[in-house]
Amino acid sequence: MTDRIAVLGAGMIGGAITKSLLKSGYKGSITAADFVAEKVREMKELGAAATTDNRKAAADADIVFVCVKPGDVKKLLKEISKEVKGKLVVSTAATLPLAFLKKTVPEAKFVRIMPNLAILVQASYTAYCCEADVTQKDKEKIKTLLNIMGTCEEIDEKFMDAITGLSGSGPGYLSIVVEAMMYAGLKLGLPRTVALNAAAQTVLGTGKLVLELNEHPAKIRDMVTTPGGTTIEAIHVLEGSQVRQALMQAIEEAAKKSQLIREKILETTK
Ligand SMILES: NC(=O)c1ccc[n+]([C@@H]2O[C@H](COP(=O)([O-])OP(=O)(O)OC[C@H]3O[C@@H](n4cnc5c(N)ncnc54)[C@H](OP(=O)(O)O)[C@@H]3O)[C@@H](O)[C@H]2O)c1
């Protein structure tokens, strides 16, 4: 695939998309645009073409990633409306529906994605949904790009808030788990780097076990729990805590917030 890519907004996610594509040796051109000169410089140093001119970046691209905060999307889309006519525009913005994007620039073909920061290490789970005019060929291109950044799955748009709460924000929750496990290691006297490596790799490995063995997490838990062993002692403590309930509630609250932010943006950008 050699399509020319523009990434508008080289912040956390736009920067990660640019870095991920560069790291993969993507064959097409990659242009990052941002109005923060320092970010433009950073993207240039990494090997992307970089500019402060959104319109030029969009004009010279086949596929345009919009990676600004949800409240800034409408203004940016209006700015590049002529340049993206007939092109694929991929919005990373949480909360903003395809209908909102399409209404802003009816002539563009919109894809809405919800990645997470693991794009940076090519391990994101990215859900995406598409407007009706996105063709099968377009979808193949999107899948190819998103698979460079991790794995992807097309979903019904009605699930986007839930995905935002679960995997979009997910690295935030699992960082707490990794940190807590690291601190347990410190409490037991492990050297700091040993404790951190052991905690982080165990979270990574557990995800891989679930995915690659295609097993329910309960099965993995069962596989490591021997009668009278060490794991059952820890599980006994965990089951007496509210860790499951806390995670479920946390994700539900994040999803609710996604809905609230959308309502506020739609109200203020009418
Ligand atoms: N961060 C995540 O983990 C995550 C995960 C999933 C989805 N998302 C979505 O991804 C989008 C970007 O989030 P982010 O965390 O990457 O935000 P961010 O770090 O603030 O990056 C956005 C960048 O775009 C710049 N910008 C704003 N308006 C612009 C414009 N008109 N033209 C060019 N550049 C512009 C911003 O500059 P200023 O800082 O000067 O405004 C900033 O450098 C959001 O819509 C968010 O919902 C984020």
Structural description of this entry:
This protein has 270 residues and is α/β, with parallel strands linked by helices. The chain folds into two domains: 5-160, NAD(P)-binding Rossmann-like Domain (Rossmann fold, 3-Layer(aba) Sandwich); 170-239, ProC C-terminal domain-like (ProC C-terminal domain-like fold, Orthogonal Bundle), CATH 1.10.3730. Helix content is 56%, strand content 14%. It contains twelve helices and eight strands. An eight-stranded mixed β-sheet has the order 3-2-1-4-5-6-7-8, sandwiched between helices. Helix 5 (98-104) links the parallel strand 5 and strand 6 (109-114). Helix 7 (160-168) packs across helix 12 and helix 8 packs across helix 9 (192-212). The radius of gyration is 21 Å and the shape is elongated. NADP nicotinamide-adenine-dinucleotide phosphate binds at residues 8-14, 33-36, 39, 54, 67-70, 72, 76, 92-94, 114-117, 168.
Which tags fit this structure?
270 residues, alpha/beta, Rossmann fold, 8-stranded mixed β-sheet, 56% helix
The average pLDDT value, as a whole number, equals 97
Query: What structural class do you assign from the helix and strand content?
Result: alpha/beta
* CATH homologous superfamily annotation of the largest domain: NAD(P)-binding Rossmann-like Domain
Distance between the termini: 38 Å
Q: What series of H and E elements makes up the topology?
A: EHEHEHEHEHEEHEHHHHHH
| Spatial strand arrangement across the major sheet | 3-2-1-4-5-6-7-8
Q: Which segments are poorly predicted (pLDDT under 50) over 5 or more consecutive residues?
A: none
Estimated helix fraction: 55-70%
